[in-house]
## 1
Amino acid sequence: MNHRATRITCVHQGCELYGSDRSFIESVRVLRERFPEADIDVVLPGDGPIVGALEPYASSIAIEPLWILRRRHLPRLMTLGLATLPLAVARALRRIRRSDVVYVNTCVVTDYLLAAGLDRRRTLAHLHEIAEGPVALGLRLLVRLSGARLIFNSRATQAAFAIPAPRPQTVIYNGIADPGPAKTAAYDGSRPLRVLMLGRISRIKGQDVLVEALSRLPDAVRSRIAVRIVGNAFEDEAREAALAAAIEAAGLSGQVRLLPFIPDPSAHFAWADIVVVPSRLPESLGRVAIEGMAHGVPPLVSDIGGLPEVVADGETGWTVPPGDAAALGEALARIVTAPDAWASFPAAGRRRYERLFGQEACGDALAAEFGRVLSGPGTAVPATLSTAATR
């Protein structure tokens, strides 16, 4: 009889504490809760703040040179980087063969997905990306070659990959930890509307769209809005400087504050009346919008990607066309001048979060997918599997 502990390997492409990193932490926490006796080994590409957050749940944390497909590094990866790919795939294959199940928390970890194609019995790939152009074609091919069982974080992500139906696949929304009681105080127009934007500073996220939208508003409306843009650019200080210069050039320095990324954004949500996600390109889901609803802060989002799956337009928040600064500005003007029209949104958003994006429901679904892999032949099945995966 096999008494060894189940070995679960969890692979992630980052080492910070942005949204994708926090989603990974929550997935590992769920696995520790549902499979308490398992050995859970985490593999990361570098040391960073995510390590401390994972330590309560991981049996071990390994820092290894993962072969990660990033757009900004493509020229190097497709030239000198190719020489390191065979070694990276071999290293990943050794880990896969030592594990009962391998959880790859993104489709850009190329070495592990290629290695999964050489051992198709035990890998789960959790896809959180919607790419475009040649990168999208490359990622689709990589996912198909992997043979992994697929988890998509939204219907929009599933549609973007368009993997044929016989392939085992499911949609599981990212579970977001309950931040505690939602805000109860409603915005009544007696002070400036507090608008929050969280996320990496990039063209994709649309900080520039928000700045342009504010600059288009009449002075009488713009003066009734206070904005926090929270985040940093990824290895791109010039982009941060360009955003600061655009804010100053638009005459918005007195109303828009640029603040650095912090691991726990709870204080910002406590400050905010609404949260804005003005993405230019598809978000695979929209964690910030979900967190906003969990805090009782209605989201104003682009109608693109997975964001419309998060926000019920006119009920829990608002949607506007992506990249449309005029439409975003008009929505902000309506929100400022007619607060009674959305007084019910915070409570409705909190209910939607609890129903669709709470950790319990998402954790059950994720554990069930692990159970399906672990129930295969030749694996060490934990004693808790029958209850953990079917609750």
## 2
Amino acid sequence: MINKLKNHLVGTLKNEKGQGMVEYALLIGLVAVVVIAVLVLLGPAISAKFQEIINALN
């Protein structure tokens, strides 16, 4: 009985089915943070360039 319980616990602890999804979620989160940081840093410069283009077209 104790061996059966031990084997069940060991099998449960070795279960790695959700590990891949967690890794993908962490990777997507990291990419999202980087994209947001780049947009915050470069947003004003991009906006200024678009404004220059609009002024040149007028």
## 3
Amino acid sequence: MSASVHIVGPQFSTFVRSVQLCCEEKGVPYTLGMEANGQPVAMHSPEHLALHPYGKVPILLHGERRLAETPSICRYLDAAFDGAALQPDDPWERARVDQWAGLLAGYVDQALVRRYLLEFVFPKGEGGAVREEAVAAARPGVARALEVLEAPLAEGDYLVGGLFSVADAIAAPMLDYLAGLDDAEALLAASPRVQAYLERLKARPAAANVLVAPDLSVLSR
């Protein structure tokens, strides 16, 4: 089996960045981009749907293996490669990491990314304007998600105690993008533990190549 992997997806995607973070944390060599086996993969094309039945990213290519869905990919990377453990050995603690990975990839992603952040990145108002009513409607969900994340951070530096885990790799890109929005400043100010948590995540060496300014020019190619 190959010692390296390829991540299908654009680097600006929060979920692609989560997989990238896991590779960086474990020292797994990787490439990434919208291609597979040297051939371009257009979003929702037949080639894309052959890799993911619902046309989502990321998709992990490891030799002849194909794997979709971020929590599953991150767990696989942790189990299949040497390097720092991204999941606890204890069954209960591991289940808690799985719980947070599911909550983040589902509910928190919907609140922070799909309903809020994307309105600023890809505004759908008239003339390409941000829809202020959509932003206002999304803010309570963002506040609730941050409140949910505050609670476990009272017990340790990361979402499950003192170990950086798969769950933290999923949380980091979402929170990093959120902190880059002026509109979110007041929301984050009400969640001081989340703010401190994000600074810890960004200070990790693995974040240097991942939590970077997004290149959205790929969308016009």
